[in-house]
Amino acid sequence: MKPLKEKVSITLDTDVVAKVKELAERDDRSFSQFVNKIIKDYLKNVDTE
């Protein structure tokens, strides 16, 4: 069975990391979960344009 998630490594600006961590904490999610949500939401909107 194929894993549902894949580990990746990315480099982000320090201010972006700080803001995402803050928003993730407010949303009671881990950093990774929140980044995944942001990207999914973005891709959903891009597909419909």
Low-confidence stretches: none
Q: What would you report as the Rg, rounded to the nearest angstrom?
A: 13 Å
The biggest beta sheet is recorded as: none
Which bin fits the share of residues in helices?
A: 55-70%
Order of helices and strands: HH
The total domain count is: 1
Q: State the helix count.
A: 2
Percent of residues in beta strands? under 5%
**Average pLDDT across residues?**
92
- Structural class estimated from helices and strands: mainly alpha
Spatial shape: globular
Q: Separation of termini?
A: 34 Å
Work out the number of β strands: 0
Could you characterize the architecture of this molecule?
It is a single chain. With 49 residues, this protein is mostly helical. The protein has one domain. The chain is built from two helices and no strands. Helix 1 (14-26) crosses helix 2 (31-48). The chain is globular and about 35 Å long. The termini are far apart.
